[in-house]
Amino acid sequence: MNSGFDWVPFYEEMAKKLLAYRRKQTVLVKILGDSGVHGLKDQNPKGKAIALTEMDPFTFLALLNKQSHTERARILREIKSRLGITASAPTGFLGIPKADPRQTWLFPYRFARNANDIGKLWDLYEAVLSGKKLSEGVFAGAQSVKYAGRAKLTQAIFRAAPKKFFPVDGQTISYLARLGLPNQFNSAKEFQDICAQVAMRVTKPLYEQSHDAWFLNQKKSPNAEAEYQKKVLRKAVSAKPVVEKKGGVPVPRMKKAGLSSGGYQRDPNVAATALSLAGFKCEIDAGHRTFISNAKDKPYVEAHHLIPFSNQGGYEFSLDVTANIVALCPNCHRLLHHGKKADKAKEISMLFAQRKTKLLEKELKISKADLIKLYRGDLLEEDA
Predict the structure, then answer these.
(1) Residues paired with residue 264 on neighbouring β-strands, in sequence order
(2) Are residues 203 and 230 in the same domain?
(3) Is 230 exposed, middle or buried (0-12, 13-18, 19+ CB in 10 A)?
(4) Which domain range does residue 206 map to?
(5) pTM of the predicted model, to two decimals?
(6) pLDDT of residue 205
(7) Using CA atoms, how far apart are residues 326 and 304, in angstroms rounded to an integer?
(8) Distance between the two ends of the chain, CA-based, in angstroms?
(9) Looking at the structure, do residues 248 and 296 belong to the same domain, yes or no?
(10) What is the per-residue pLDDT across 80-102, written as a single tens digit (0 to 9) for each?
């Protein structure tokens, strides 16, 4: 499985393990606490913190998805041991909705909680894992729990069964619209119909489509990519080369604004170093002629992340390293983004053969087949 989605088999096994804890909810709370998860204090009517003694599995899974990429990977290694999960601990989290740290629980504090709120969430969870159609009564019961809103509930269901269900939330609105599907539902049947239609319309697993939907929904500046390439070339002939330490490089910082709201930040200095190392020549064919840029009379070439940068969430180490950045003439760059599948596969295979060892040195592991899959459709300019 592509490293960005290696959370799927782990979450599927974890979801099944949680079924055994309906009568041992305090143990679930302890497992979370012992694994380093915070936000586990309940409140009495006077607003005083008290011990949390109840826990539903949807909230358990949500609490594992409010942290940073690195912290989440660390916590899941702890969870693997404590729940006896045999699947490898994941390092990639593409497509899985991140929980809002301020509203992670699907139920209210003790003083506002109804007697069977937790039980209603457990009933739905067991129905989801049963593989059978969700009944209207069980679905409605879970929706009646305060803080288990429709969008939040579909995210929770998706985390537990990512091959069968699809999150219907703010991140997937544009994607569903492109498929001609509704993004609202009032019943279990309507929600399940949406999930089934998404699976039928596109020949991709639902969890991969979830990532596609997230990316489509990100805010993008139409001029940002051109500005990035211009800045890279300018720095390539004027700035000091970036010196990378041996081994994997820490994941880039998150953007405050720009191509993707909430995305990772590319460092033009790193790409500039890669262009300089390539001698300002196209790495698909050094004989490809291009025009002379305004950047001190150097041939115009563009920086391209071989493992597309949009997949950073699936890697423990940075994709924004010279080992993963190739210099391309404008024509070859457009080819990798918008060319025919067979043409792209040929050039990607060649570039991968040249870079495989260097990628491994930077702790970036991917097979040629999985890399080619990342280019199966049109690749947005800012995606790589």
Answers:
(1) 254
(2) no
(3) middle
(4) 3-216
(5) 0.63
(6) 94
(7) 5
(8) 21
(9) yes
(10) 999 999 999 998 899 998 888 77
